[in-house]
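Structure (tokenized):
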């Protein structure tokens, strides 16, 4: 399957993309931290917010102009590595390496455009296909929390960074930060 991946722009937020995002998310709720169903209107607002938030990078994969998947990068937390977020692929595109390429796009973007040494991600423990994908793309498991947290070092594995080698906080510090932030 041929496809292109490009950063989301305001003009990409169409009713068709909102419909696709709504369908993908609602069909995959068990793999999201927030398992609340979404509507096309809430998907449109979500996508619009991604085009306006400088701390959030969002890319969409298109096959012949039709959206087939997306990935996000959260990059707005000072002192923390970027975090892969919202990786999802639509039904007909599954099994065509779209998710793998979206993840590779996010890793490369983090390295080249953000100057990051590592990228992290969080996923629910029962998401075995995603775990396999992340491991195949070189992510290493950092630790078990209430969630599984993975991190990929570009020049070194993030999980073995020492304070002297890496100024980024370790994953348990990031988890504590999220717990404080979310209450």
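Design, position by position:
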């Amino acid at each position: 399957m041929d496809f292109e991946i490009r950063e989301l722009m305001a003009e990409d937020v169409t009713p068709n993309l909102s419909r696709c995002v709504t369908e993908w998310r609602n069909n995959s709720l068990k793999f999201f931290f927030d398992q609340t169903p979404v509507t096309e209107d809430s998907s449109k607002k979500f996508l619009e917010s991604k085009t306006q938030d400088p701390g959030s990078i969002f890319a969409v994969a298109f096959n012949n102009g039709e959206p087939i998947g997306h990935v996000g990068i959260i990059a707005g937390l000072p002192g923390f590595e970027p975090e892969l977020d919202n990786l999802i692929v639509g039904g007909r595109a599954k099994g065509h390496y779209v998710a793998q390429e979206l993840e590779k796009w996010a890793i490369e973007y983090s390295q080249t455009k953000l100057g990051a040494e590592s990228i992290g991600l969080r996923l629910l423990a029962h998401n075995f296909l995603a775990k396999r994908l992340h491991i195949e793309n070189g992510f290493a498991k950092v630790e078990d929390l209430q969630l599984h947290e993975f991190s990929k070092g570009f020049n070194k594995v993030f999980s073995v960074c020492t304070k002297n080698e890496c100024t980024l906080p370790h994953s348990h510090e990031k988890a504590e930060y999220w717990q404080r932030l979310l209450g």
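Reviewer-requested clarification: The beta strands are 4-7, 56-63, 66-74, 83-89, 118-123, 140-144, 148-153. The chain is about 35% helix and 25% strand.
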